[in-house]
Automatic annotation (TrEMBL):
<feature type="domain" description="DNA mismatch repair protein S5">
    <location>
        <begin position="201"/>
        <end position="319"/>
    </location>
</feature>
<comment type="function">
    <text>This protein is involved in the repair of mismatches in DNA. It is required for dam-dependent methyl-directed DNA mismatch repair. May act as a 'molecular matchmaker', a protein that promotes the formation of a stable complex between two or more DNA-binding proteins in an ATP-dependent manner without itself being part of a final effector complex.</text>
</comment>
<comment type="similarity">
    <text>Belongs to the DNA mismatch repair MutL/HexB family.</text>
</comment>
<protein>
    <recommendedName>
        <fullName>DNA mismatch repair protein MutL</fullName>
    </recommendedName>
</protein>
């Protein structure tokens, strides 16, 4: 691998949780109904993602690991209106450059599937094999060939916690998909995939938290805001439970945070922060998702209408709950 390629890989794949995010997004794009994520040692030694999505045709397996060889090809115009999660055709190539990967996949209707092994960007094996419909990817020894990156990682437990948070966000933004998370041989998370955000929130944050949530469902100027906010009594000591999605993508936005907190201004105890799980749906043209692939910070073409929509959505929900 050339240095340039390894650097490019490092920009998409910062740590184990970036691998999980990219690969689970691929499973979501593949139409999976069930996704299992298994990790060992914070994902550094072992990560497995299994889905029951559409699978990859045997002949397409090598192509999937080529940079920019996305099957989700779009025109320049499409790029501004992105709806699928992945669109750069960079993730698999980037992971493959810095890890050892084994993929097994079968498309519905194919008698046999394929098994593909690629290590440090080099194909090691490609053969037919029997396997269930869908895709399983095992990633071993992340950053084994980039010691500097490996050294930069935190302890297993912190990397594992980043992954857990990533899986939780993906589960909350896709309540219609059943997620299972296995960490060091223990099943630590399971969502039902019944389509209800509240039941996903219960699985992720516990019944006591979920039972205190106030529903939000509001539209302003073509911006829909829906989900849940915490009762003022359940505000937290940090912002770690403020979860925003824009068109089902987890994002960080100071505008959304400010709007949420402004709506609580008079009902919140000093030094406390409201929690939320809010979905903001707006026309994709007004969101710049073509920012750095590993970053979650988002820019809105128009910040003020987003602020207003979130602010009034939350305000309205709090007023209704108080009645
Ligand atoms: P992108 O998602 O941007 O297209 P990726 O590198 O993430 O690029 O994936 C490359 C291609 O591999 C995808 O376009 C898709 O065709 C295929 N692929 C990857 N993961 C899966 C999966 N879990 N199920 C089916 N196809 C997949
Ligand atoms: Mg992708």
């Amino acid at each position: 691998k050339s240095v340039a390629e390894l650097i490019a890989a490092g920009e998409v794949i910062e740590r184990p949780s970036s691998v999980i995010k990219e690969l689970v997004e691929n499973s979501i794009d593949a139409g999976a109904r069930h996704i299992t994520v298994e990790i060992k040692h914070g994902g550094i030694s072992y990560m497995r993602i299994t889905d029951d999505g559409c699978g990859i045709a045997y002949a397409q397996m090598p192509t999937a690991f080529l940079r920019h060889a996305t099957s989700k090809i779009r025109t320049g115009d499409d790029l501004t209106g992105i709806m699928t999660m992945g669109f750069r055709g960079e993730a698999l190539a980037s992971v493959a450059a810095v890890a050892k990967i084994e993929m097994m996949s079968r498309q519905d209707g194919d008698e046999l599937g394929g098994r593909y092994i690629i290590e440090g960007g080099e194909e090691k094996e490609h053969e037919s094999c029997g396997c269930p419909t869908g895709t399983t990817i095992v990633i071993k020894e992340l950053f084994y060939n980039t010691p500097a990156r490996l050294k930069f990682l935190k302890k297993d437990i912190s990397e594992g916690n980043f992954i857990a948070a990533t899986v939780d966000r993906l589960a909350l933004s896709h309540p219609d998909i059943s997620f299972r998370f296995i960490r060091d041989n223990k099943s630590v998370r399971m969502t039902s995939g019944d389509g209800s955000l509240l039941s996903a929130a219960k699985a992720v944050s516990g019944r006591q938290f979920a039972d205190s949530l106030i529903p939000v469902d509001f539209s302003l100027n073509g911006i829909d805001v829906s989900g849940y906010v915490s009762s003022p009594l359940f505000c937290r000591n940090s912002r770690s439970m403020q979860t925003f999605f824009v068109n089902t993508r987890y994002i960080k936005s100071t505008t959304c945070m400010a709007a949420l907190e402004e709506a609580y201004r008079n009902s919140m105890m000093v030094g406390k922060f409201p929690a939320c799980i809010l979905n903001i749906s707006l026309s994709p043209e007004t969101v710049d998702v073509n920012v750095h692939p590993a970053k979650t910070e988002i820019r809105f073409a128009y910040e003020k209408p987003v602020f207003d929509a979130v602010y009034f959505a939350v305000k309205n929900a709090l007023v209704n709950a108080a009645d």
